[in-house]
Amino acid sequence: MREHARVGGGPVPDRGDGLPELMDRVARGDQEAFAGVFDRVSGPVLGVVRSVLRDPAQSEEVAQEVMVDLWRSAARYRPDRGSVLNWALTLAHRRAVDRVRSEQAASDRARRVALLDHSPAYDEVTEEVESRLDRERVRRCLRGLTERQRQSVTLAYYRGLTYREVAELLSLPLGTVKTRMRDGLIRLRDCLGVTA
Amino acid sequence: MTADELHTLTGAYVLDALETDEEREAVERHLAQCDTCAHEVRELSETTARLGLAVAAPVDPALRAEVLRRITDVRQLPPATRPFGRTPGGPQGLRRLPRWALAASVAGLVALGGVAGWQYERAEEADRRAAVAEERAEAVAAVLAAPDARVSTARLADGAVGTLVHSPSLDRAVFAAAGMPAPPPGKVYQLWYDDSGTMRPAGLMTPGAATSAVLLEGPANRSAGIGITVEPEGGSPRPTSDPVATMAMPEA
């Protein structure tokens, strides 16, 4: 299991050398260790939230909630179920998506479509982020997907759309979108060499 | 949905792109029974993490300072104690137990069912619940965590399981039920302390919830046990029907 997050900068107070070790200390109430976790995961967390929510102030607010939540539930983290980063980003994505969907109320679909009227989500990243290598790799692997696969995966992940919304947007049958999401991710997984 | 259909949804599941909670729960139940699918979900979930990593954004130092300040006031949850992916088809109501109650399930007395794991849960739902009932939750947690907490469980009617926790030092008791049928329309379950045969009102169980952990209102030490009756909405000053369940206070 790889831990890639190095975003946010700042020295990591180190006894253990990885995120799982830091999390272990956080779970025992170590605030200094939490600062280390913060420095490694807050950048991706904020990025994911902002990608879905778009509004900077709201994104910061949600990212903050996610980070506090990581502190609160640190003892629930189980290394055998996935990386710390994945855990953090799972919380971040769900929280962002929930926020969008709760605000969205059926009438607000128009706003949603307006949001989509941008170039592909993954091109909108600011250049100064430190994870450029990761980003390049992801971008390259995304290019290896079929267009349907790529659109299905990125609209869901980076924009928080449901499969039904993706299907409507792309005028595809529901079943096709479900399948494209899965086989797109499988292809991405293989391209990125992800194991679990 | 068939297993094949559920399996196809692993992608939409890790992308949070399912339409309804029911759909998500169906997938999670399937994952609990299908190791291959659970493995695939772990891998695909890690894959989405790479998508997330790729859009990392610089974090304002003020945000960092604010979070580090806030956590000094935030109490941490205890570790979850339940097994992973067990008891497929177990009573669904159980998963509605607040997480702190699960965590403090006091040596696993409450059997837990049907959930694939923390990754797949919605921590924020629990948060919301906890925020709504934070004070009560704290009190319940205090009872469950009390060093002198005594616990008993009993099988109630209709296959429901009741757990009664009593802390003499706090003079409080908590009751948790799993798998209780919903009360009839317009009715609620009311809890009573049994003070040597006199029933003293001890609060209502959460309406509509098949499962809930409730801090009983009032002191617990003088009672021999508790009872549950079905009462009109809002509860009654005195029981108006025979108890649907009774439990003795747990022994030391």
TrEMBL record, chain A:
A GO biological process of this protein is:
DNA-templated transcription initiation
Task: Report domain RNA polymerase sigma-70 region positions.
Answer: 38-104, 141-189
**This protein's UniProt keywords:** DNA-binding, Sigma factor, Transcription, Transcription regulation
> Which InterPro entries does the UniProt entry name for this protein?
RNA_pol_sigma-70-like, RNA_pol_sigma-70_dom, RNA_pol_sigma70_r2, RNA_pol_sigma70_r4, RNA_pol_sigma_r2, RNA_pol_sigma_r3/r4-like, WH-like_DNA-bd_sf
Q: One GO molecular-function annotation for this sequence? A: DNA binding
One Pfam family recorded for the sequence: Sigma70_r4
Gene3D superfamilies assigned:
1.10.1740.10, Winged helix-like DNA-binding domain superfamily/Winged helix DNA-binding domain
Protein family according to the UniProt entry:
Belongs to the sigma-70 factor family. ECF subfamily.
From the Swiss-Prot or TrEMBL record, give the protein name: RNA polymerase sigma factor SigK
Naturally occurring in which organism (per UniProt): Streptomyces cinereoruber
